[in-house]
Design a protein that fits this description.
The protein is mainly beta and 260 residues long. The protein has two domains: 97 residues, no CATH class; 134 residues, Beta Barrel (Virus Head Decoration Protein, Chain: A), CATH 2.40.300.10. The chain contains two helices and 16 strands. Strands 7, 8, 9, 10, 11, 12, 13, 14, 15 and 16 form a ten-stranded mixed β-sheet that branches. Strands 1-2-3 form a three-stranded antiparallel β-sheet, with no helix packed on it. A three-stranded antiparallel β-sheet has the order 4-5-6, with no helix packed on it. The N and C termini lie far apart (57 Å). 28% of the residues are buried.
């Protein structure tokens, strides 16, 4: 049976220390992960039945010192998940017995985040927001270039083999950026432009059928990529490589963005 524990209950459990005796002893608490808290040296001898509801043991808490430092450890009694939720009734934070934590919403960290492995499941390209100098609506998948008349801004490509090529506007075919780089209050406004990774891009087969592995460059059709066939002109004007085909006409193709 799942036991859902209110955040308020958790806070209450941390105030129960005065209800326990002062006869403590050095011990290694069996419920503390050895790689997180290490050996616990409790100043008060907390029992696992420190908090109950309807005759059901819910939480235990104890104070001690370990490799993670001094502090209060708490957890559920038994191998059950710990849920925190708001008035919506949906768990905003879930901590499983395995140690995995799941957040239902965004996490804002005002500082440095350090991790061994970062796995992104919500997108496939590395993007940055860029202001667009043109008033016309620029669709997702459009190839954009640096606007020399408006420093710091981008615009649609409109000529073949344009060495000002900057990337592809992210979001076409429902593929979103996996990682977005920006600096608040300075470099944060505009459209997300893929600078690396996989993204769907507008393309034309006007310069030849596009096949996976073909190098791509800008074309005369606004916002469209095309197959690069001129090696000399391609230098500095390559968007990346095609991952899917385009036999004729115009359409979206999957591109591995790698500006060169």
């Amino acid at each position: 049976m799942k036991r859902t524990i209110l955040f308020g209950v958790f806070l209450s459990s941390l105030t129960l220390q005065n209800s326990f005796g002062q006869n403590s002893k050095t011990a290694a608490h069996p419920n503390v992960p050895s790689d997180t808290a290490g050996t616990v040296y409790p100043e008060q001898n907390y029992n696992s039945d420190c908090l109950s509801m309807h005759d059901t043991r819910l939480m235990h808490a104890w104070f001690g010192s370990g490799s993670a430092g001094d502090g209060v450890w708490f957890g559920t009694c038994g191998k059950h998940a710990l849920y925190f939720f708001t008035d919506s009734g949906k768990a905003s934070l879930t901590i499983h017995p395995s140690g995995k934590a799941y957040f239902a919403n965004s996490i804002h960290v005002n500082g440095t985040t350090t991790t061994k492995i970062l796995t992104v499941t919500g997108g496939s390209d590395l993007a940055e927001p860029f202001p667009i100098s043109e008033n016309d609506s620029i669709p997702a998948g459009a190839v954009v270039v640096i606007d020399e008349q408006n420093p710091g801004k981008l615009k649609l490509c409109r000529k073949a083999y344009d060495t000002r090529v900057a990337g592809v506007v992210s979001g076409a075919s429902g593929v979103n950026p996996g990682l977005t780089l920006k600096q608040e209050e300075k470099l944060e406004n505009g459209r997300n432009v893929a600078l690396n990774g996989r993204v769907y891009a507008l393309a034309t087969a006007g310069n030849g059928t596009i096949r996976p592995g073909d190098l791509l460059t800008t074309s005369d059709i606004p916002g469209h990529a095309m197959k690069a066939t001129d090696k000399e002109l391609s230098h500095g004007a390559i968007i990346g490589k095609a991952l899917t085909s385009l036999d004729a006409g115009e359409g979206l193709i999957l591109v591995l963005v790698n500006l060169q």
